[in-house]
Amino acid sequence: MTNVRNPADMKISRRALAFVALVSSAAFNLATAARRSPSTNRYLAFVGTYTSKTDSKGIYAFEFDAGSGKLTPKGLATETPDPSWVVVHPSGKFAYTANEAGPQSSITAFSIDPKLAKLTRLNQLPAEGQDPCHMSFDKTGKYLLVANYSSGNVVVFPILGDGRLGEHTANVKDGGAPGPNKERQEAPHAHWVSVSPDNRFVLVSDLGLDAILLYRFEAVKGALTPNDPPAAKLAAGAGPRHAAFSVDGRFVYVVNELNSTVTVFAFDGSRGALSDPQVVSTLPKAFQGRNDTAEIVLHPDGKWLFASNRGHDTIAVFSVDSVRGKLEPAGEFATGGKEPRHFAIDPTGQFLLAENQNSNRIVVFRIDPGKGTLTQVSQVDGIPSPVSLAFLPVS
Q1: Which residues pair with 110 in a beta bridge?
Q2: What are the pLDDT digits (tens) for 208-255?
Q3: Which residue among 68, 178, 205, 240 is least enclosed by CB atoms within 10 Å?
Q4: CATH number at residue 383
């Protein structure tokens, strides 16, 4: 990394650290309880699309019945250009989208009307980089973290009390040696960003650098400073895309787009270090065609890990060793369409919704909790280029 580390810059007061740990622990426990004991079977699902490549107009809303697995279209939630990634705030009051548009890329904040399944724009700010492709919240819900793919930088935006975005508090450029793939790894390409479970570190998956970058996160100011160690390297040409923490936060699972693998790291939460990698393929041994992995999601119970293959057009399933974090392949299941760029598990943990980008189709699968197998129960066609999905509980 190109930044110079200054230990004095990375200090945080004991009182602030204790506060962050307390808030983070409470947020983690509440989120876990919500996953295990959902109070409703009705959800809204907001689906992001590519408007510049299709006849899409923006973000579309659906009603999802977690009792039957039925997905019902509710129409256009809002017009907005190329909303390639959509997230719903933990409060359920606001939604945010990455408008992926090269030098004109932006981040937009919306208020949510759950009764009408509509989004109303609050404000829009420049992404401070090109082609934002992933966003997440810190554990306090006060900050939105954005990964800009083409410019290879990560930006932190504060979330104001009314849901609007404030001026960014951090903007760090990924640094390191590019990978060997000259077409895809000519420069840094930040593709995923998330805080650690205790809210002390920020991890960035950089496809161009074959690395998971590590920063210290100061939640009081929304600041990022380089960590020591600054990164964990993956296999040359792996192309890390997205990642997921284990339920207990001791392991990180990274899906690698360019070589169709998942890398498992042990995570040292005391110093933000990744070690002891295991690498497993997302494809059957006999497969010879083109493939790019896309999304990776851990089941809420922590027993099953899912990753999507584009080309093979399947969801690869792995059983998870809860003690050692290691993975064992448990099969691949066709997604019922082409190019499953994104998929999501519903908040009850019963269903997996696969968005087949090139088939304009979302397919709903029931998850067998004992075997991790997927069985199709419904589908919705005619959705132009579905590429992201975020749930909102409704009464």
Answers
A1: 95, 121
A2: 999 999 999 999 999 999 999 999 999 999 999 999 999 999 999 999
A3: 68
A4: 2.130.10.10
Q: Quickly state the pLDDT bin for 38 (edges 50, 70, 90).
A: low
Distance CA 304, CA 320 (A): 6
What is the CB neighbour count within 10 angstroms for residue 2? 11
The pLDDT of residue 113: 98
d(Cα 221, Cα 61) in Å, to the nearest integer? 34
Q: Is 13 exposed, middle or buried (0-12, 13-18, 19+ CB in 10 A)?
A: exposed
Q: What's the pTM?
A: 0.90
Mean pLDDT of 132-144: 98
1 is a domain residue:
no
DSSP state letters, 224-266: EEEEEEEEEE--TT--EEEEEE-TTSSEEEEEETTTTEEEEEE
In a domain? residue 24: yes
Nearest Cα to 336, choosing from 378, 388, 287? 378
Count of structural domains, the chain: 1
